[in-house]
Amino acid sequence: MTSASPAATKAAPYPAGLLANRTVVVGKLLPFAVFAAVLVPLALTRWSGSTAWPDALTVDLSGPLGRTSDWIIDNRDHHPLFLYFFGHVSNAVVLSVRAVYLLLLALGWAGVTAGAALIAWRVAGGRLAVTAAVAFAVCGGLGMWVPTMQTLALMVVAVTASVVLGALLGLAAGLSDRLYRMTRPLLDTMQVLPAFAYLLPVVLIFGIGVPAAVLATVVYAAPPMARLTALGLREADGGVMEAVSSLGATAKQRLLTARLPLARPRLLLGLNQTIMMALSMAVIASVIGAAGLGDRVYQALASVDVGAALAAGLPIVLLAVVLDRTTAAAGAGTSDTNGGDLRGGWRGWAVVVLGIGAVAVAGRLAGRLDWPAGGTVPIAEPVNRVVDWMTDHLYSGVPVVGGTADWAGHFTTWVLDPLRGGLQALPWWVLLLAVAALALLIGTWRTALTAVLALAAIGVLGVWKPSLDTLSQVLAAVAVTLVIGFAAGIAAARSARVEALLRPVLDVFQTLPQFVYLIPVVALFGVGRAPAVAAAVVYALPAVVRITTQGLRQVDPAALESARSLGATGVQQLRQVQLPLAGPALRLALNQGVVLVLAVVIIGGLVGGGALGYDVVYGLAQGDLATGLVAGAAIVCLGLMLDRVTQPAERVRRKGA
Amino acid sequence: MRTYRTLTAALVSAGALLAVTGCGAADMTKQASPYANAGGAKTVTLSVQSWVGAQANVAVAAYLLEHELGYRVDTVQVDEVPAWDALSQGRVDAILEDWGHPDQEQRYVKDKKTIAPGGDLGVTGHIGWYVPTYFAEKHPDITDWRNLNKYAGQMRTPESGGKGQLLDGSPSYVTNDKALVANLDLDYQVVFSGSEAAQITQIKQFAKERKPFLTYWYTPQWLFEKVPMTEVKLPAYKEGCDADPEKVACAYPHTPLQKYLNADFAKGGGRAAELLKNFHWTTEEQNEVAMMIADQKLSPEKAAEKWVKAHGATWKKWLGE
């Protein structure tokens, strides 16, 4: 489903390898080396000694954070800030979610299914209408009707809020250069943050439940809307704008009649992205009481029931598919051009509204509002049987290759342990210098500064060691992801059949909530860091494979043709033409891989990954703000640092689905 | 000009928001779930904790509330400490199995009076260290903590870094294990599995291969039926020996598990509140349901239905009949 937009993977005019331009490298690194040569001895004389971050440079936040948490709990029922601001926000969220939920219940299953089909028909045509109807019927058939409606109600509110907020931000940034410069780093940062890290602050203020879940989702899902709105407005064709101005249009008229309509595809892509990101939060938000489908997944995992988790996860995938295809079709603008007499214009919408009303009333008259009790298909049991078989036969003692538990053990001992040991044994200033040098080589002095400051902040927060533990897991997982992802991407780029085979697999992997993987990986790899890495690899692979495939495919055919005419073999073509030309795409794949891996490695705290992820879970579970927030902040810094040292040519879609 | 107009628009919309949400103060301490009482049905929202025993309580309570009293029941999975918070705010109506949180009890039950005690669940909980019985039978001396170091080599895993592995569970559980390992001078490393699901999966895998392992575990728990485990004796528990979390060097206490209700719900919750207060069953009964859910993979509703059909005498009393 997800694919990098073509703009991102446009091949550079000439091979843009890392060391292609020697003078640039020397020019950047030489001043840096001089700078370091002065600074390091200075730092060493002040804070020498252990390799870990110096104690003198840490700030202990546990006292103030503990007091903050107590203050909030004690003042929540009478302080004006809560009574007149947060209280109203919370009430507004509860009321709107409730309103949507009641509407969906009043429509009944027949009304909602018909509604989904009709809207899909109006926006995208007949084929998608069938898909939508089938998808909703399957949600009911899996016995998930009520949770699906709860999730849908929550999504409608969260997406609406994200779109409004994002559009306002984007409008401001699109019209004013100053605001654009100001909001860009903010949005950049918001998109790099793993969602898991900011659940705790929201919970602290709003408590467990729907308001907290909606707000966390909005923080996560609003940035793409804002970015794409700003982008769309800024891209408006200069010639058209000139023409409109010359006709004497006011600023407002120019915006409404020219800029916004021109930006329509971007706006709809923003909506699409926002919906996908909001859906991917559905399960993560269940940790803070979002109810609905996410909660079913979470509860099923608690009783080690992969089948039931899948039964609740599939409706999320189906919702994602329907919403993605519908909004994508709207963005492509196919709706108004064809479709004959009934579908076009207002008449189409009238048909939709009348149709929904008729079906809903019919359902109500027939007394069939709830999904029929007998009409469910249990898929949990067969799925569990498959999982049991896998764990019985693959866990250990497989002849020759050894069982998955042995692999996990070897991976932990031979890869993860040395990596973690090595990182933790490196003196702190060496790490800072290495990060600075890497970021300088790939980006600008500005990105290097951000990266170094982010890493230093981790030290200041006093979580140097666990952060390096997390970092070692991320590096290992990224390495595995890239090896498999590039191989699969190359295979798919060279053979249409492989790509067709991979596509549905990648679709499912990408939209299935990350939590669903957690139990199978424990069953296969035992408890520890290895399963966390495995889950991260599975989650990050689709994006890497997709971007790689697309990057290779878009390599200029003329360049390939000339290579072929010179008698280059397939391997030579790949190594000397395609890969270098696809350089920017591969770097984007690396960046995406890093960010996605980090998000899941943290959730790996739930299966023994330890380090920062465990601290966040611990903070949430024990209401321990000091541990949870500090770990969350460290994750944010780690994410920023990793993003900056892998800064791609251009950033686009990220965070999966 | 334009700024004025924007400002007016902003004020008007803020005012509209206030009007919609009811003017003036909004009490954050009283907020139900948006899904509660929908479609004319009376609903009860129960918090479920991640372990299966807690799911069993909730499944049976929910079944009776739905089928005997005609309520609609919503369940939300929340960890223990946040569940207290949610209970005080009215986002959930009851916790059916609490393992003892003195701080929270002081804050919400005694000081704020937003939570009311709901009485004993009838089940006594106990946390301890366990080894598989097949291993204890071969090496009977392992059941004393003084001999644990002798077996540390056999308990080693890739995660435990050269020491023996003491497998711990979810971060939400009460544990002194890190302090215990240090204070009792044990050659073990506490490995946190991060969730009970992960821990159970790992224990089952160990048991399938009949490998030795040492784990934090608790009773009542259905897993004992599948993987028999024997407790390792730690220095005896005395009142107050776990007061300082850094210096703990004794076993865990036996805790009669408690129920708690939201204070308003306890007063005005009608027959639902009455049923939840009267809910009282034995360890064996809880295990029977837990086993059906976790091992036979029945849905909680099906498991509860089966149990309710077979044990009329027990639950009829809860309805006050």
UniProtKB/TrEMBL annotation, chain A:
The keyword DNA damage appears for this protein: no
GO MF: amine transmembrane transporter activity; carnitine transmembrane transporter activity
Primary residence: membrane
GO CC, alphabetical: ATP-binding cassette (ABC) transporter complex
GO BP, sorted A to Z: choline transport; glycine betaine transport
Gene3D superfamilies: MetI-like
Annotated Pfam families: BPD_transp_1 (PF00528)
Keyword rRNA processing recorded: no
Spans traversing the lipid bilayer: 29-47, 99-121, 128-146, 152-175, 196-222, 274-293, 300-323, 346-366, 425-442, 448-464, 476-495, 515-541, 594-614, 626-645
InterPro entries registered for this protein in UniProt: MetI-like, MetI-like_sf
Domain ABC transmembrane type-1: 148-327, 467-646
Mode of membrane association: Multi-pass membrane protein
Keywords: Cell membrane, Membrane, Transmembrane, Transmembrane helix, Transport
Subcellular location, record wording: Cell membrane; Membrane
Family: Belongs to the binding-protein-dependent transport system permease family.
Name of the protein: ABC transporter permease subunit
Protein's organism: Streptomyces paludis
TrEMBL record, chain B:
Domain ABC-type glycine betaine transport system substrate-binding residue range list: 42-309
Signal peptide limits: 1-25
Pfam families the UniProt entry points to: OpuAC
Residue spans crossing the bilayer: none
Keywords: Signal
GO molecular function, one term: transmembrane transporter activity
Cellular compartments per GO CC: ATP-binding cassette (ABC) transporter complex
Protein name, per record: Glycine/betaine ABC transporter substrate-binding protein
The species this protein was found in: Streptomyces paludis
Lineage: Bacteria, Bacillati, Actinomycetota, Actinomycetes, Kitasatosporales
